[in-house]
Inverse folding.
């Protein structure tokens, strides 16, 4: 029993915690939870909690359904929304096989493995996500959902639901040790953005899982419904999760080089070259649902084309405004990821793509100054700007022949992910949509 | 006796001087006499007493000593000259001791001598007789701090001399004290006994140097008050057992001083650490001391140079690897803020003692051990004192492993110093007293030798000198005066052997239950400690292991006593295998079966390799374990590589011939024929597992063992059928027979569990009508099948004729004419494809066989290839096979034979190419898959990259099919062709196919290799060109 575990046990006792939720994530990024009583906690630390993995998406094959969730005591956190006195707490788990090895299906471990690769190269990977989501009046699926307000970008809505909502959500996040950088009303009606403070990628991914729960929970308390669906309203902007990425060598930002163009080091340029080079291959992971492609190709600021720019809000990768001399903040913003991605897998493939750029010393193409959407197809062709996949089917197809993604996810997750997504595509394609009925039924 | 004036007189005197010098121990006495007669020396040696010359002769290297004295005499002046003269003319006890120190230092170390010559005032250090060892650490620290003008009493000593001046002052003080240590060392009466004190003095001096360097750094770094910094000594510095020349390993930990923030503390701390390293190792006017190496810090060279305590702890909690904890075992505060250093030590301590419970402790330890043994350049292997088997590292590893295993429960064995830890382990009952004493002696000898070698030129070397003169000097400096170089080298080799043996003895011997009748010194390890030790090397069931060991060694029989000799080391070997528990159990079974056989235990005890190989086989392969219990004489093969080579088809066929010629009873004859195959399967398994045989050769050997078994069974069957029908068994019966091998047997690519696919062909002899011949042939074929597959202690070879025309509905045997007619009228594409693997194997090969081949060649190698309709047909059949043949509930990716990118994917692809092109490319007319693929590649029909991907997948899948049998011992069943899911089996398979990685790596490798192969198959076989 190490100190951290002892700390958890002591806190559980002192704070009169009645249940501890053990959290883990399935392959698609959906949070799963097992509750244990404090009395079971000690054995959960030493032996883990057994569960039947065959019923979890992508976890395992029927033959070896026994899996073990082993809580990571460093992630212990009291859940503020379950009442103050008889509290509930949560910990993230590593998923192990009965032999005590990491399960191949544990996406948290996919990220850990990739981080370890970076660490072998001397890097720590930091991310800073800007999460967008919608607040709707209620959950309804029979027609377009109704946003809680009609405000726009940065609008302050007096006594607006959204304002209260963000305040409550942020208070709750902060009380759980998750620092919030920034929050504001986004462009769409009812759309909000909350930015998490930068942290190492594993912490960020854990935080994102918590964040989604908190947002959903607060929404419920306030009688509204929150959704991270990439494109819930066809005529309004989608919800992305622009992610700022940086590599650190020890305490030094490896992306920073004073005096270089945009103060961007060679490492940063190669990392970005890697992101762009592999962007199409990893899209199925960063944008994993059929709905994701409606955001990706929804115009406006959507990053549909593989290019980069300094402060170019139409580029896939963006080098944000830098403050000269503020070396720590050098970073690259990758704009394709949406709010419904599995953050563990998404950050793993982004990191792997960037590392591939460094390892193979890719050349970074010229930056794009223009708004890519305004260029003609031929102009884009002349500039060598390629599109991202236009549909889940195309993304799957490209990913299927990607050695980079296979290696990063591991063969098991890779295989499962492809199967699951092919299935989703097949089911989606089988639909006869409102669009078709409206357009074709009368005339055909 | 006075030699001084000798050379000035006549030649005879001079010769006698040379003779005297020679007797005193000079190597080149003529040269020594000339040097002694040098006029520059005269003022010092004129009238010197005989004891001076005797002292010179007593030096480690008298010739060197004399040369250095002369050089010193040429430079020395003033008071130092007087001192030199006084020491040479020593006439009282004190000056005689000074003389000893001077001559011993000059004769042992070129480097120390050169230093005195360039700084003659240092002769006073030799003359003042102050000790270099056994000095309190605080005094040494104060001495070096004073040298840089810092106050040793201050909480935070800051030098008054900064920059290079400070560094130089520190370095001069360091070197003066180093000379003092060297003088005490080389004049010690027992160089081995004083070793710990010397090593401690060197470590204290290094610590003091770090402290003084830090004081200099503080003088240079503005705002140093912002940070509290502690320097932790690691490695030999931390263990307080440093040698003369070595990197000094450190870790820095910093905390903000009161009123300062952390960022500031980290920045200033980094500056201080950098300046400290510069003061020790940077270029200034004094030569540098040693590199300050901070590579053991978290994240190694990639990590920040300094961290806060919390940051260290966070790293060790999350990221650190087992070897880092082993390294932490040595961490000790040596300079800077003591309270902080101690806090660090307290914080990391729990990590060290819980390392043994970490998931990968066993694997990590094995890896560390391999690093110890293998990291030696071949050219140096025979000269290395530190690395390699039996080197210093080996001793340290043994001690540290025991500390990690038992230190968790016992706080009294946690010393950082190797020799102290060893003594503690002995006192605690973890190492026998005698073993501990011997290991300590080995360690002291190796360390003392290392010290002397390094001291000679103050170079960081761990290599035995090669020149006999240097070896002689080394021997003398270690007090081995009479034996000289030869005795030294012999003792060194003996020490290495002993270290090796002691590791096995110390770690494994106590795992054997103690016996009352053994000597008193035999220690008794508590059962809990025995279990911890078994578990730490990978036994899953320590209690079971203890039972097996007890059973094997119980009693006073000769057997038990040989087992007591054998087992300790074998327990170690089992532990390197996939399943140590199974290995030990199998060894117990085998030993119980063979114990009474006179040669068995003797062979294991006396052969250099047999026991190790047996342990490896038993722990890695159930198939081999069973084969060896069934074929006990197989143990003999292990001592001889030639015995592990396949016998070859011809020898086996001759052996079978001989068996059949002398056989009287058919059942008995078949049993013997089948026994030959069983023996060869065992031999092949052993050869493959031990890496004597590559997988392709093994598959060939398995096929070669099947061929004579089939031929033998055919002969016996024909014999019986003829006798039954009243024919003369030595002449033709109603028909002549031919057996055609198909499938993997045809391709000579069999695995341990493969069936024999065959076709039976006959031709009626003259005057026999076809129905009679057919009946005869069928009965021969039936009897052959029965003979080879009937229940028997010998392994069955199921003979499968399902590939014949019309399959199971067709007659078992057909005449050649009937084959001709059938193939002419009905033949389908899959039959042509199957015939690609046809190889005539037994019966009338010369005539009937040749004609059969002539019959089928146009079918399998059709001129102009095959029509598009056939290609389509083959693709469709394959697609259907994929859908239907896979057992239900099996993941396609994991089926080694029929799965995605598995054996059959590759074979169908190659076979389709053969049907299309083998007529035009004769090299493709072969039954071997890989041969055909290679020929197709050479002919430009397959891209090289694609061919490589296909061959990789085929080889890996085939090897794994064999490996599954070897691992599990099961030749059939539902899981025989499946890549297992459980990690233990996967790890076992990884070891069998000699993959340098874990089971999880193997799984990834297989899935990746076959995924790629499948992509090629879809393109090449299904014509799915993008």
């Amino acid at each position: 029993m190490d100190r951290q575990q002892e700390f958890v046990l002591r806190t559980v006792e002192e704070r009169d915690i009645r249940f501890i939720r053990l959290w883990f994530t399935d392959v698609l990024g959906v949070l799963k939870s097992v509750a244990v009583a404090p009395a079971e906690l000690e054995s959960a630390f030493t032996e883990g909690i057994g569960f039947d993995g065959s019923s979890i998406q992508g976890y395992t094959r029927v033959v070896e359904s026994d899996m073990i969730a082993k809580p990571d005591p460093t992630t212990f956190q009291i859940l503020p929304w379950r009442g103050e006195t008889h509290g509930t707490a949560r910990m993230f788990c590593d998923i192990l096989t009965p032999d005590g090895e990491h399960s191949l299906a544990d996406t948290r471990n996919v990220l850990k493995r990739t981080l370890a690769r970076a660490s072998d190269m001397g890097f720590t990977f930091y991310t800073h996500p800007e999460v967008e989501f919608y607040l709707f009046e209620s959950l309804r699926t029979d027609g377009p959902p109704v946003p809680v307000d009609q405000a726009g970008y940065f609008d302050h809505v007096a006594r607006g639901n959204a304002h209260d909502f963000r305040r409550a959500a942020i208070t709750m996040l902060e009380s759980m040790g998750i620092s919030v950088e920034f929050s504001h009303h986004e462009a769409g009606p009812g759309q909000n953005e909350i930015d998490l403070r930068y942290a190492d990628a594993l912490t960020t991914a854990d935080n994102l899982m918590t964040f989604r729960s908190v947002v959903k929970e607060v929404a419920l308390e306030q009688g509204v419904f929150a959704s991270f669906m990439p494109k819930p309203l066809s005529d309004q902007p989608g919800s992305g999760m622009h992610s700022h990425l940086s590599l650190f060598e020890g305490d030094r930002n490896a992306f920073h080089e004073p005096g270089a163009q945009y103060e961007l080091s060679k490492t940063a340029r190669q990392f970005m070259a890697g992101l762009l080079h592999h962007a199409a291959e990893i899209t199925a992971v960063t944008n994993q649902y059929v709905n994701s492609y409606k955001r990706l190709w929804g115009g406006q600021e959507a990053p549909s084309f593989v290019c980069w720019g300094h402060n170019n809000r139409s580029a896939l990768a963006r080098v944000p405004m830098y403050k000269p001399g503020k070396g720590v903040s050098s970073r690259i913003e990758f704009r394709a990821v949406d709010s419904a991605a599995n953050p563990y897998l998404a950050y793993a493939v982004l990191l792997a793509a960037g590392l591939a750029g460094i390892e193979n010393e890719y050349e970074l193409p010229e930056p794009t100054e223009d708004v890519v959407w305004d260029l003609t197809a031929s102009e884009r062709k002349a500039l060598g700007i390629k599109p991202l996949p236009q549909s889940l089917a195309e993304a799957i197809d490209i990913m299927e022949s990607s050695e980079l993604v296979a290696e990063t996810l591991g063969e098991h997750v890779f295989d499962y992910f492809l199967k699951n997504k092919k299935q989703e595509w097949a089911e989606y394609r089988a639909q006869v949509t409102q669009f078709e009925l409206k357009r074709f039924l009368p005339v055909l | 006796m006075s030699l001084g004036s000798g050379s000035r007189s006549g030649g005879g005197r001079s010769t006698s001087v040379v003779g005297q010098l020679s007797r005193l121990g000079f190597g080149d006495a003529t040269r020594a006499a000339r040097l002694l007669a040098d006029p520059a020396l005269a003022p010092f040696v004129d009238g010197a007493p005989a004891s001076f010359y005797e002292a010179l002769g007593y030096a480690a290297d008298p010739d060197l000593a004399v040369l250095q004295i002369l050089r010193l005499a040429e430079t020395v002046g003033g008071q130092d000259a007087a001192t030199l003269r006084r020491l040479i003319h020593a006439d009282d006890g004190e000056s005689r001791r000074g003389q000893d120190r001077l001559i011993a230092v000059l004769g042992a170390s070129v480097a120390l001598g050169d230093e005195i010559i360039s700084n003659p005032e240092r002769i006073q250090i030799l003359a003042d007789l102050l000790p270099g060892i056994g000095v309190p650490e605080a005094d040494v620290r104060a001495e070096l701090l004073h040298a840089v003008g810092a106050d040793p009493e201050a909480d935070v000593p800051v030098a008054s001399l900064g920059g290079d001046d400070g560094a130089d002052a520190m370095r001069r003080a360091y070197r003066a004290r180093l000379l003092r240590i060297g003088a005490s060392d080389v004049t010690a009466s027992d160089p081995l006994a004083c070793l710990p004190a010397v090593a401690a003095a060197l470590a204290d001096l290094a610590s003091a140097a770090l402290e003084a360097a830090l004081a200099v750094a503080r003088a240079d770094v503005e705002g140093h008050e912002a940070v509290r910094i502690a320097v932790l000594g690691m490695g030999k510095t931390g263990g307080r057992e440093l040698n003369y020349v070595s990197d000094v390993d450190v870790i820095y930990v910093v905390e903000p001083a009161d009123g300062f923030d952390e960022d500031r503390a980290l920045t200033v701390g980094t500056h201080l650490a950098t300046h400290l390293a510069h003061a020790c190792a940077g270029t200034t006017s004094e030569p540098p001391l040693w590199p300050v190496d901070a590579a053991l810090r978290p994240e190694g060279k990639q990590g920040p140079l300094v961290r806060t305590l919390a940051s260290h702890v966070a790293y060790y909690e999350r990221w650190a690897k087992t070897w880092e904890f082993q390294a932490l075992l040595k961490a000790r505060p040596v300079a800077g803020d003591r309270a902080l250093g101690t806090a660090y030590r307290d914080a990391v301590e729990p990590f060290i003692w819980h390392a043994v419970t970490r998931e990968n402790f066993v694997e990590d330890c094995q890896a560390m051990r391999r690093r110890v043994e293998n990291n030696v350049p071949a050219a140096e292997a025979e000269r290395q004192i530190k690395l390699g088997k039996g080197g210093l590292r080996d001793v340290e590893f043994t001690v540290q492993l025991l500390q990690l295993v038992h230190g968790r429960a016992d706080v009294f064995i946690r010393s950082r110093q190797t020799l102290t830890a060893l003594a503690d382990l002995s006192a605690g009952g973890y190492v026998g007293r005698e073993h501990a004493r011997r290991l300590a002696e080995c360690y002291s000898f190796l360390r003392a030798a290392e010290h002397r070698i390094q001291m000679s030129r103050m170079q960081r070397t761990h290599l035995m000198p090669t020149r006999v003169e240097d070896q002689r000097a080394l021997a003398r400096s270690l007090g081995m005066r009479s034996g000289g170089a030869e005795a030294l080298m012999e003792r060194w080799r003996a020490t290495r052997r002993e270290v090796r043996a002691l590791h096995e003895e110390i770690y494994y011997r106590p795992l054997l239950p103690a016996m009352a009748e053994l000597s008193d010194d035999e220690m008794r390890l508590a059962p809990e400690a025995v279990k911890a030790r078994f578990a730490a090397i990978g036994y899953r069931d320590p209690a079971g292991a203890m039972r097996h060991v007890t059973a094997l060694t119980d009693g006073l029989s000769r057997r038990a006593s040989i087992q007591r000799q054998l087992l300790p080391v074998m327990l170690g070997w089992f532990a390197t295998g996939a399943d140590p528990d199974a290995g030990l159990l199998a060894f117990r079974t085998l030993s119980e079966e063979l114990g009474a056989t006179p040669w068995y235990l003797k062979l294991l005890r006396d052969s250099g390799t047999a026991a190790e190989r047996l342990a490896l086989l038993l722990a890695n392969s159930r198939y081999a374990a069973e084969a060896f219990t069934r074929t006990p004489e197989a143990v003999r093969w292990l001592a001889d590589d030639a015995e592990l080579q396949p016998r070859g088809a011809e020898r086996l066929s001759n052996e079978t011939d001989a068996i059949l010629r002398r056989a009287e009873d058919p059942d008995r004859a078949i049993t013997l024929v089948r026994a030959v195959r069983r023996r060869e399967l065992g031999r092949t398994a052993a050869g493959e597992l031990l890496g004597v045989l590559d997988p392709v050769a093994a598959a060939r050997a398995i096929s070669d063992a099947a061929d004579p078994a089939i031929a033998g069974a055919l002969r016996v069957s024909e014999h019986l059928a003829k006798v039954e029908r009243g024919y003369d068994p030595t002449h033709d019966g109603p028909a002549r027979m031919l057996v055609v091998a198909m499938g993997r047997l045809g391709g000579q690519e069999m695995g341990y569990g493969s069936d024999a696919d065959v076709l039976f062909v006959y031709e009626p002899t003259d005057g026999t009508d076809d129905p009679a011949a057919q009946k005869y042939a069928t009965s021969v074929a039936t009897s052959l099948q029965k003979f080879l597959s009937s229940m028997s202690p010998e392994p069955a070879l199921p003979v499968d004729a399902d590939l014949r025309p019309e399959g199971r509905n067709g007659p078992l045997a057909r005449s050649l004419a009937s084959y001709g007619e059938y193939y002419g009228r009905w033949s389908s594409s899959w039959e042509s494809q199957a015939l690609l693997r046809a190889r005539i194997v037994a019966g009338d090969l010369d005539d009937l066989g040749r004609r059969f081949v002539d019959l089928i060649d146009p079918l399998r190698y059709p001129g102009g290839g095959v029509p598009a309709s056939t290609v389509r047909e083959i693709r469709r059949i394959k697609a259907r096979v994929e859908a239907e043949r896979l057992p239900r509930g099996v993941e396609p990716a994991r089926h080694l034979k029929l799965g995605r990118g598995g054996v059959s994917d590759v074979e169908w692809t190659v076979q389709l190419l053969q049907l299309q092109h083998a007529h035009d490319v004769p090299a493709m007319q072969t039954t071997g898959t890989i041969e055909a693929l290679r020929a197709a590649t050479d002919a430009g029909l397959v891209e090289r990259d694609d061919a490589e991907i296909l061959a990789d997948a085929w080889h890996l899948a085939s090897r794994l099919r064999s490996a599954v049998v070897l691992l599990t011992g099961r030749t059939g069943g539902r899981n025989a062709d499946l890549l297992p899911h459980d990690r233990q089996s996967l790890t076992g398979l990884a070891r069998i196919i000699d993959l340098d990685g874990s089971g999880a790596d193997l799984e990834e490798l297989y899935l990746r290799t076959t995924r790629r192969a499948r992509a090629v198959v879809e393109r090449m076989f299904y014509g799915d060109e993008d």
